[in-house]
Amino acid sequence: MANNIKYVHTNLIAKDWKKLADFYIQVLNCKPVPPERDLSGNWIDKLTGIPDVKVRGIHLSLPGFDNGPTLEIFEYSPESIDTDINYINRKGFGHIAFHVDSVEEILKIILAYGGSQLGEVIKKDYGEIGILTAVYVTDPEGNFIEIQNWKK
Questions:
Q1: Which helix (H) or strand (E) holds 38?
Q2: 116-137: pLDDT as tens digits
Q3: Which residue intervals of the chain are DSSP H helices?
Q4: What is the DSSP-derived secondary structure letter of residue 90?
Q5: Residue 35 CB coordination number (10 Å)
Q6: What is d(CA 90, CA 118) in angstroms, rounded to the nearest whole number?
Q7: What's the CA gap between 152 and 130, in Å, rounded?
């Protein structure tokens, strides 16, 4: 029996979903996909396995897609108390990547909006497939983003 499978979204859990969504809207040209989510009740308790959970947030369309996968930014109450330090090579969610015209220009905007730079901006010549310019950054809540540009 065949199944149609379609990628739907990537979820980020936020401390402040509105502030984090605004970062992705202002800096990386994501667009809100209404409605905002305000989820609670027995059904979401059962789905998450968390009693009396409340989930608030929004989906954002990704740049270059009108009706494609979304970035889902949710805030949970109660929130997790996991205080492990997040590293770029930690198992689990690694990073999301955005192709931009100017890595350096977007890096400046990310820093102005509360993001952080992890390493250096690199340029790597991959021969036939082109030259990669890239940098790893974090959003204001520490989620990893790769900003990249490929030129032939």
A1: strand 31-40
A2: 999 899 999 999 999 999 999 9
A3: 17-28, 42-48, 103-112
A4: -
A5: 8
A6: 14
A7: 4
Average pLDDT value for residue range 103-111: 96
Whether cis (ω within 30° of 0) applies to the bond prior to 32 is no
Amino acid at 146: E
Gap between the Cα atoms of 135 and 120, Å rounded: 6
Specify the pTM.
Answer: 0.84
Amino acid at 6: K
CA 9, CA 27: separation in Å to the nearest integer? 19
Report the C-alpha gap between 42 and 77 in whole angstroms. Answer: 14
User: Above 60 in pLDDT, residue 88?
Assistant: no
Contact between residue 121 and residue 140 where contact means Cβ atoms under 8 Å apart: no
Encoding tokens for residue 5? 């499978």
